[in-house]
Design brief:
The protein has 5 helices and 16 strands. By secondary structure, the protein is α+β, with helices and mostly antiparallel strands. The strands form 4 sheets. The chain has a 7-stranded antiparallel beta sheet with strand order 10-16-15-14-13-12-11, covered by helices on one side. Strands 1-9-8 form a 3-stranded antiparallel beta sheet, with no helix packed on it. Helix 1 packs antiparallel against helix 5. The longest helix is centred in the C-terminal third of the chain and has 29 residues.
Length: about 350
């Protein structure tokens, strides 16, 4: 098992979930997401237990979803309420799983493990810049790569001055970093002094050079908070042109990943043109730079387990390595508890 199920994952942005059911595969589970008549989000298994048809393709009346294949009706707790065949008796096994969900920070959070252990207080606050009624800039893409490789990529942002040089980060320059690691959180703080302002920051920092400060935090299992700040040379991060971003990494399958991202900034926050340019820059970086590189790495691993390949260790690998080890520990503990 390569997933931790007893954890909160981003299942969707809140605006994606409407009164029309749709399916999203999460931790290799097909899950139906929809809002009930009161507007509350519900999540149930999407596979009908009769002949395994996708329930989201059926008719939804606000209360029950009708299987499109043979008409069994399921409520949003996953219980079968209607059998239109024979004497109408409902088989005891005619039910699907329901999943705890919460709506916070514009995100639908889903718990795929033991429901009794789902504590909403464990959901990580995203700490984005408050934009009032304006939705943060954001996006969702599906990458055909193992989610742990995506976490590696984010927890070692030294790659940015090579892979995203001049756009998301300054071009090759000295980068000083410090690390803090706890069992379920890891933080990396880094600074690059007196560097050219990358184009993503130049949109709202009007200086050609300055100090580039970055902080990335991993919160178990796959929520990452990021702060980027461009300041005058010698300035403090809190005084600069700052973005607060969230990277929400949700495994789709063992070899594919949902990547949800959100971006907010502290200057010119109502400028639609900057929003559009920012989305273009970030989307290009993720789809044309990050994903192809991560996919190439996965391809060259030839299906081998990461640590079995004995990767060369660099000082910048501390956070990504600790993140992997912490995930392994939690996954093993969950498997052990299940076996017991």
């Amino acid at each position: 098992m390569s997933f931790a199920f007893n954890a909160w994952y981003c299942a969707a942005f809140a605006h994606e979930v409407t009164h029309v059911p749709f399916m999203r595969r999460i931790l290799n589970l097909p899950i139906l997401l929809v809002r009930n008549e009161e507007g509350e989000v519900r999540a149930i298994g999407d596979r009908c237990p009769h002949r395994f048809a996708p329930l989201h393709r059926g008719v939804f009346d606000g209360v029950t979803i009708e299987c499109p294949y043979h008409g069994l009706g399921f409520d949003l707790e996953g219980k079968c309420r209607l059998n239109p065949h024979g004497d109408g008796k409902i088989p005891g096994a005619a039910q699907v799983r329901s999943f705890p969900v919460r709506e916070r920070d514009g995100v639908i959070w889903l718990w795929a493990g033991e429901p009794s252990q789902a504590d909403p207080d464990d959901i990580t606050p995203l700490q984005l810049v408050d934009r009032g009624d304006r939705r943060p800039v954001g996006g969702h893409l599906t990458m055909d790569v193992d989610y742990r490789l995506v976490l590696d990529n984010l927890m070692d942002l030294s790659h940015a001055m090579f892979l995203h040089a001049g756009t998301l980060a300054p071009e090759r320059a000295r980068r000083d970093a410090t690390y803090d690691a706890q069992p379920d959180t890891i933080r990396v703080d880094a600074v690059m002094r007196d560097v050219s302002t990358p184009s993503s920051q130049l949109l709202f920092f009007h200086g050609e050079r300055g100090d580039f400060h970055s902080r990335i935090e991993w919160h178990f299992p796959a929520t990452l908070r990021q702060r980027l700040s461009m300041t005058d040379v010698g300035g403090e991060p809190g005084d600069g042109a700052t973005t607060r971003n969230a990277h929400l990494i949700t495994p789709e399958t063992a070899t594919s990943t949902h990547y949800f991202w959100l971006h907010s900034r502290n200057r010119l926050i109502e400028d639609d043109a900057i929003d559009a340019q920012t989305k273009t820059i970030i989307t290009n970086a993720f789809t044309n730079e990050d994903e192809p590189m991560i996919a190439a790495c996965q391809d060259y691993m030839d299906g081998e387990e990461f640590f079995s390949l004995q990767p060369v260790y660099l000082p910048t690998d501390f956070a990504a390595t600790r993140c992997r080890r912490n995930l392994e520990r939690r996954i093993a503990a969950e498997a052990s508890a299940g076996a017991g």
